[in-house]
Amino acid sequence: MRFFAGSIDLRSSVPGGCSVNANDSAVAAGLQLFISGNLQQNSYSVAELLELYLKLGLSAFNKLNGAFCFALLDTEKRQLILGCDHCAQKKLYYRQDTEGRIHFSESLKALKSSPGFVPELDFQSLADYFALGYISSPRSIYTQIRLLPPAGVVLFKADGSVDSQSYRQAEFPPKLDISFAEAATECRRLLTQSIRKCLAVRERPAFLLSGGIDSGLILALAKDLLPEPAQAISIAFSNPLYDESKLAALTASKLQAQHTVQLFEPSDLNLLPGLLREAGQPFADSSLLPTRLALQQAEKCSGLVLTGEGGDELFCGYRRAQFMLWRFFCAGLPAKALAALARLLLGWLPEAGEQRSAWTSFRRAVKALTRPALPAYAGFQELFSAEMRQELLLGRAHEDYLKHWEEILEAGSDVEALERFDALELKVYLPEDCLQKLALAKQGLDLQVCCPILDRELLEFALRLPRRHKISLFERKRPLRALAKELLPRELLRQSKRGFALPMRDWLRQEMADEIRALHETLSEWDKQGFLNQRYVRRLCQEHLDGRRDHSARLWSIYCLKTWLQG
């Protein structure tokens, strides 16, 4: 498969004789620009973008839209700039070898084949992986390979110096002075405009359709732009706590779409080894697998698929955001008294059960009240707590990922607290989990994936919306819900978010019970570097299999690591 990739030696007397695979390229004034992405979503050709760079510098790339990555070689100054799009929809990995040559690729696996690569695992990345189920940029699982963050650029010079920057002009732009009605109207206009850009690629795309608002809105707004009924694809599960296919069917019926529903069964877990092998590093978001199944179905229908990715991150759609809003609202209450009350409740509440159950969600929120703001927020996503990671990783020293998160929060110290936490969603969770999942799920498929909600103009609009227009104490992603009330079945508005996550608690105890026992029984065979505590892994396995605790997300992360190491 052909990737955007290259290898350049800046110390060479003729660095322009580089080796680069790219969709398009242009040359002007001693500059060579190589780019990969869908430029049909933009109003600039590669040559025009290069001319714009000569006038504006790096801020020229802030005018691009959609998913892209690029390499800009200055043969006169003998420097190289690598960059990626605003949300890191396109992944770009890079490394510099001992000879000073720079290697880069969309594929981490492909980059491992570059000359002189030594596959030394990065222990800090492993610790981060067990904390969150994914590895955050700029790290990868290997010490020698790095990943560009959203809107990130890295500048290499012939003298060996390396400088990381961002071309985004404002992280926290000033807010718009508009009414909520105006905000909802503009949101609809921008989203429709974005969908129209995506349809310029192929007029008959497929649509991934969950039972939620975001994907339903994409389909609803696209309906009148299509020459014939849309092709909608959904995933079904036999467990009703995870299944959204009936809600998706209501949306498809209302919008007169041709609806294909694919049942995900435990046997489909066999997709995992191949996906992780191609990924080049471990990844533990279980929704990767049903997403892959859905994209395989989409490939049969079209060369283009539209998804609803980004609505929760741009418009405060997660429950954890609403929890933080309530927490800040109650900031005047005595913190110690609130924490003491929460601890009393935890002693009374039943032990956490099924991850999607109301009791588990309530217990998670109560537990968060016993912690400071940032750890409380992180607790809604964390797999292994700091204490658990110490035990799992045999007490080996590593830095807490929350230090990086604190830096993001501190960068917005002069804006409202919830805005700073929303920046974490956009800078970390969206690119490293959600968009990484999409990038991995489409590996090897002849398929282009478009995320209309992540259009640059819509992104900038969402960043400028006042917080009250996005979320209140009782309503999340308010502009999208306002549109949904007009366009989608009412049943969708009464349901909580589910997504494509798998019912892992029961599957690990039943269909995968033997594989879970093997995690600790064969640990010395697959954990050859001795990273993990076998006694602790055995305890997790036994507690889960005996039904005493739900460790499904933790055990799945260990299983994914094992699968990747053995791939």
Keywords:
alpha+beta, 5-stranded antiparallel sheet, 16 strands, 567 residues, 3 domains, Rossmann fold, globular, 13% strand, 6-stranded antiparallel sheet, Glutamine Phosphoribosylpyrophosphate, subunit 1, domain 1, 25 helices, 44% helix
Helix content: 40-55%
Tell me the CATH superfamily of the largest domain: HUPs
The CATH architecture name of the largest domain reads: 3-Layer(aba) Sandwich
Q: Output the number of helix runs.
A: 25
Count of beta strands: 16
Give a written overview of the molecule.
The protein is 44% helix and 13% strand. It has 567 residues and is α+β, with helices and mostly antiparallel strands. It has 3 domains: 5-166, Aminohydrolase, N-terminal nucleophile (Ntn) domain (Glutamine Phosphoribosylpyrophosphate, subunit 1, domain 1), CATH 3.60.20.10; 180-315 and 443-493, 3-Layer(aba) Sandwich (Rossmann fold); 503-567, no CATH class. The strands form 3 sheets. It has a 6-stranded antiparallel sheet, with helices on one face. β3 and β4 form a beta hairpin. The longest helix is centred in the C-terminal third of the chain and has 25 residues, at 417-441. The model has no long low-confidence stretch (mean pLDDT 90).
